C-alpha cells in the first residue's frame, strides 16, 4: 500500500503568493510541494515561529526540517587567572 505525501491544504496560499504574506503553521510534518516555491512560511518550533522561505531545493522535504527545535551548543570561554 503506497501512501502519498502528507500535506496540509492552506486556504490562504493564493493570497500569500500574490501579497507576499507569510503563512503561520504548526504542521511541521507537511511535505513541501512544487507550488509552495517562493512562499514564506512561519513554522512553529515549539517556542516561537521561525521564518522559512521555500526554494526549489526544498521540494519533497518537510517544513519542520528547516525550523530547528533545539538551540545549537556553544562552548563558553574560560578566563585564565
From TrEMBL:
Membership in a protein family: Belongs to the universal ribosomal protein uS19 family.
GO biological process: ribosomal small subunit assembly; translation
Keyword Ribonucleoprotein: yes
Keywords, comma-separated and alphabetical: Ribonucleoprotein, Ribosomal protein
GO molecular-function term, one example from the UniProt record: structural constituent of ribosome
Keyword Glycoprotein in annotation: no
Segment forming the signal sequence: none
GO cellular component: mitochondrial small ribosomal subunit
Database matches in InterPro entries: Ribosomal_uS19, Ribosomal_uS19_CS, Ribosomal_uS19_SF
Protein name, as recorded: Ribosomal protein S19
